[in-house]
Design goal:
By secondary structure, the protein is an all-beta fold. The protein has no helices and eleven strands. Strand 5 and strand 6 form a beta hairpin.
Length: 115
């Protein structure tokens, strides 16, 4: 099982970024997946989750209405569209999947929001 994030970078406040997470080694269509983030000195926090079917998504209040998680079954990839970015969104963003009771994480991608 492997998940690999891409798409991070530096952006000004109010800008947008789209993160991607490519998944391999498991049956992608059968598993829910999530995006987390971790800022320096902070605990890792959930920012978006999506069910295996893609029908149901979940967001904390801090990003609701600004972030959108989606998945592309044929590409075995999930995405995180981030709009109206704020400096407090600065963090390393991680993709996560739980397969057979074990969590798998990518290496993370840095998102920096600064003027």
């Amino acid at each position: 099982v492997k998940v690999e994030e891409s798409g991070g970078g530096a952006v000004q406040p109010g800008g947008s970024l789209r993160l991607s997470c490519a998944a391999t080694g498991f049956t992608f269509a059968n598993y829910a997946m999530s995006w987390y983030r971790q800022a320096p000195g902070e605990e890792r926090e959930l920012v978006a989750a999506i069910t295996s079917t893609g029908i149901t998504t979940n967001y904390p209040d801090s990003v609701k209405g600004r972030f959108n998680i989606s998945r592309h079954r044929d590409k075995s990839t999930i995405y995180l569209q981030m709009n109206s970015l704020k400096p407090e969104d600065t963090a390393v963003y991680y993709c996560e999947v739980r397969v057979l009771s074990r969590e798998y994480w990518g290496q993370g991608t840095q998102v920096t929001v600064s003027s």
